[in-house]
Specification:
UDP N-Acetylglucosamine Acyltransferase, domain 1, homotrimer, mainly beta, six-stranded parallel beta sheet, 153 residues
């Protein structure tokens, strides 16, 4: 574990991040207080918030936002412009419950997916591009649409 | 009112913006010709265009785009990756009508929502994450889906 | 053709891009190995990948991601936060087929649209804001929704 990624790139803000070996972080990134495993790649225009844990050998693609409360296991693919949510009823003030979200080993989230707070996306599951996921996704399952539902084949 | 936010941060482009007291603007932001009220926070990777007015005590979260023609009243929450639109039939050239959009006091827009031009989102309304809003939303109403419809409880 | 855009702006990363005349590139952009035609404008927070070809007189709006495998013809409008995809079953490893996508002359893609790999969007077609396009769109056709379907008038 180390305090900096394996590569150099301009326009990065990295504050208090724990990196595994061989992590690549692209430019225009804002990472703070999170943990990123070996061989994982973080694309441009990505923000990852405090407390997030990302496993080894993941790809986090450009324009994605990963909030506090999210854990991503090894070998997961997170497409471009994926948005995680951690509050059920967002308001500017007042109390709120922070929800925990898990993306299990080898799962794949298509570009533009929105992942609501508190869901678990099972091993090797596939979330279609643009899907809005409001419930758990079973291991190996493919979901698509808004709201996301199992794909009928 | 002042010409700069209350905090310092790198990688900001701020041009001709009028700030209230205690406004916080995060890095990687592109703000020009707009007006931002007291105690409002603007997240990273946000663009706010000329003529936009944002009230006091709002949160504008990361990756959000707010175009000319939008007014956001006090105490509103705008989630991550929210996109506003101000033209009905976008084309690269030719005439077009610029539509006006209002987000009323205390409304909350979930992450990934797309807000078409010309709509009014009422006081304390809640737009679900990933919703595509093409019609007005009544005060206190919750809408979800693509196209956004009132939530059936 | 030239190796740099017509304007100056801070916070741009431009590597091996071929520019036509009078191309404007906004700040916070990441462009590499692509080709951009005369009079086209590229907004902030945009990434365009290697091999992409964009025609003349296009607008590529903020927060948009254009991946390898995409060709955009002249006079096309690509809204804000549009995401292109070029793999059908994204995984972190293993073989994958790179799909080719074409946006024909004068087509218009609304903000927040997600364009799956391998589709052809016909001349002057209109993709609604927030639409998830998984099939070809006929010339002149308007599609909306997730998945995108022809608009019923």
């Amino acid at each position: 574990m180390a305090g900096s990624p394996a590569n150099d790139a301009p326009h990065r803000l990295i504050d208090g991040v724990t990196f595994g070996e061989n992590v690549v972080v692209f430019p225009f990134t804002n990472l703070y207080g999170c943990e990123i495993g070996d061989d994982t790649r973080i694309g441009p225009f990505v923000e990852i918030q405090r407390g997030v844990r990302i496993g080894a050998n993941c790809k986090i693609q450009s324009h994605t936002f990963i909030c506090t409360g999210v854990e991503i296991e090894d070998d997961a693919f997170v497409g471009h412009g994926v948005l995680f949510v951690n509050d059920k009823y967002p308001r500017v003030s007042g109390e709120w419950e922070q929800l925990q979200t898990v993306v299990e080993h080898g799962a794949s989230l298509g570009s533009g997916a929105v992942i609501l707070g508190g869901v678990r996306i099972g091993r090797e599951a596939l979330v279609g591009a643009g899907a809005v996921v409001s419930h758990d996704v079973d291991p190996g399952q493919t979901v698509v649409g808004n709201p996301a539902r199992p794909l009928e084949r």
